[in-house]
Amino acid sequence: MYKNIIFDMGNVLIDFSPMQYVGKLNLNDKAEEEKIFKAAYLNFKSIYMDYGRMTEDEFVDHVVKGIGEKYRDKVRELIVNWHQYLTPIEGMEELVKELKEKGYKIYLLSNAGFNQHDYWEKIPASKYFDGKVVSCDVGEVKPFKEIYEALYKKFDIKPEESFFIDDLIINIFGANRTGMDGYVFTGDVNDLRAELKSRGIL
């Protein structure tokens, strides 16, 4: 029987659309938009933030070193302040609230950098969560087993009693390998509700 529902953050609780964020910089130059997008979001060192090996400000310095100081403010807006564009997934807050009222423990398991702690409470559904594990804090990332095991240990929960919702199938496979079942969220809360009902969760 399921006792715990675990959620990913990006593209599950909130919309995460990097190219849209770049568009909000009002550069009016497609070449510059593409240059900044590639430097900020397709940079192999961005994973260092998720691992907790680099702060967002340090990553901004790294990106600017590669593309030029004149882009610092724009890059910082994307890396440090992107959450100003934060948009909740429609219907997700209501679903999390319903699960909480039914007695389930609600947890977050997210690959994210340190400033996740600054904007977490801006996500409407966050107020219903019992706790969270963020990759930067444990130095491990999904889909590797260590981050799932960190979740189980921190909250003293059993994987077989937990259900994980993530937008990436590889992360669901990672959960499955540790004994936790899950569902690949495609953006439709009604489909997710139907899946939860089929599992006896709703």
Q: What strand order characterises the main sheet? A: 5-4-1-6-7
Number of helices: 11
The CATH H-level superfamily of the largest domain is HAD superfamily/HAD-like
Assembly classification: single chain
Total E-strand runs:
7
Give a quick rundown of the structure.
The chain has 202 residues and is of the alpha/beta class.
Would you kindly provide a written description of the structure presented here, covering whatever features stand out?
The protein is α/β, with parallel strands linked by helices. It folds into two domains: 4-15 and 86-198, 3-Layer(aba) Sandwich (Rossmann fold), CATH 3.40.50.1000; 18-85. The protein is 45% helix and 13% strand. It contains eleven helices and seven strands. Strands 5-4-1-6-7 form a five-stranded parallel β-sheet. The longest helix has 12 residues, at 30-41. It is globular. The model has no long low-confidence stretch (mean pLDDT 96).
